[in-house]
Design brief:
Number of domains of chain A: 1
Order of helices and strands of chain C: HHHHHHHHH
CATH class of chain A: Alpha Beta
Oligomer: heterotrimer
Largest sheet of chain C: none
Shape of chain A: globular
CATH topology of chain A: Transcription Regulator spoIIAA
Distance between the termini of chain A: 30 Å
Strand content of chain A: 35-45%
Chains: A alpha/beta, B alpha/beta, C mainly alpha
Order of helices and strands of chain A: EEHEHEHEE
Number of strands of chain C: 0
Structural class of chain A: alpha/beta
Distance between the termini of chain C: 50 Å
Helix content of chain A: 25-40%
Shape of chain C: elongated
Structural class of chain C: mainly alpha
Amino acid sequence: MPSRTESTHSDRILVRLEGPIDRQTVPNIRKELLSSAKKSGFSEMEIDLSQISHLDTAGIAMIVEVLRTLDRRNRKLRLTGLNENAVRMIRLSRLDRIFDMQNHSAVGS
Amino acid sequence: MCDSCLIDVRGLDSYYGNRQVLFDIRVGIPRNRITVIMGMSGCGKTTLLRHLIGLKPSPPGQLLVDNEDMGQFDPARMSKFRRRIGVLFQSGALFNSMTVGENVAVPLKVHTRLSQSTIRIITTIKLHQVGLSEFIDYMPSQLSGGMQKRAGLARSLVMDPEILFVDEPSSGLDPITAAGLDNLILELRDALGMTIIVVTHELDSAFHIADQMIVLDAGRLLSVGTPQEIRASRDERVAQFLKRQADPKQEDNDAYIKRLVGERSRKVGVQ
Amino acid sequence: MLQHIRALGAVTMYGVGSVGRMGIYFSHMLRGIFRPPGKLWPTVKQIEFIGARSLFVIGFTALSTGMVLGLQGHYTLSKFGSESLLGAAVALSLIRELGPVLTGLMVTGRAGSAMCAELGIMRIDEQIDALECMAIDPHAYLIAPRLLASLIALPLLTAFCDVIGIFGGYLVGVGLFGLTPGVYMDSVQTSVEWQDVYMGTVKSLCFAVLVIWICTYKGYYTGVDEGSFGPEQVSQATTKAVVLSSISILLCDYIVTSIMT
């Protein structure tokens, strides 16, 4: 079962995701993640993916949706804790240009 | 025979009515590797592919997937197997009444509860991988044959399958696009560890991507091995196949002349 | 001699096998109604295809048939001095018989042949194979919506046909032969009973099943027996589908009429 924990530090929201992030679990997490992205009063969201077990294209798509929502409000998205699988999925999806890839983390804008 | 293989073909015989088209095929398909099935037209490679994807029922005991007998799969078990695979048919097999994007999204719409916008993004990603993202709202009939095939590939990848089956990927494509597809296939193996089975008669492409090659001739297994082994094969028929030469045996010529000239040719001594 | 017996045996086996396969197909078609994917939107689209697009054809057929019934009916009835019963004659003929049958035949020709061709093309292009390999049941995805749509559309089209036909008879009876409008409509009202409408509806439902079953079956199995998958097979399948479907409708018509009379 995937889970999501959220905490706020000054003007950053940190979201930690756990478990598989794939086409079966995305419908469960997506709504809450997007509503967090729409909240007011912060300039950067960080999603910690170090505890996820698996990431597929549906998970990538959800992250892109979050990025789009944040981008419309001129906010940044930072992905941290990327393992090999996640980095490869991002590259395979040709999204390595949108995300600034730097050792285990990526910043989207 | 091959316990670590994903698919194990153990003495497969195949018939269309009374006509036998595959004779005692014994071969293993390894995991996380690219296996290329090759042969001249009509050698049975497409029939073998249809057995591997379950479209043609296999007799019990002759085809194992993950050590389970596919010949004894009930519909539910077969359905489970099919959710792990993606298949690209020779023509792309797109549905004519939907746009390219809707075509690619079909498995997602039927099998998942993903939202419309998530599906749209996944579809765009997959179409971008095959170089067709601008054509997402076009109808299949507006695309060339090669583009339809690429769209079909995007659809077969949309559920991130473990196993990918491809029937003649390069046919109808120009060399540059074909090379692009070959590189995508290689990337899928490297990045995702996908097991890929390709049926083709394009030798260049085959040697470029194959980890294992299976060569069929008239329904029989001619040779199995790595590209290097196949190239170095001492078997004359394999060497001829690689050189794309016709069989120089005389029998066919004799039969042809007999039909033209009649039996008298024997008495007259015509060669 | 032996050859002929062998050939006869082969043909018989093939015939029996085909009938069996059609029966299995029928059960798959019904089962497909209750399996995923969702049916609502595809069924609505098919109602538009089968029903809405047939309105013009049916309307035209109904009007001319109604007018002919008016002409013939008046001719026959005037021999017995019963011209005032024209409304009844036209209405009963249409509601009990011609409405459902003509609607069934027109829908076969228009929508049935189109569906057969569409499925045949899908078959030869490996699209049905593709659906199976995506773990999607083609009967549930392609055929069941058409069956449901047909069960809704055909009775409605039949009713439409009946109304336009009765109007056609009215045009001839009142407009041409000078019958009093009130007399025409009154004879319709007094002679038509619920039994008649019920019979017409039962027929249209039976025909709905027949059209879809036969036309989609022929399209679905295009080329499968011949082992050859090309345009020639599609056109052959479509022709056979229309002929078989039409004959079945007429046969079923007799059976239902004799049961319900």
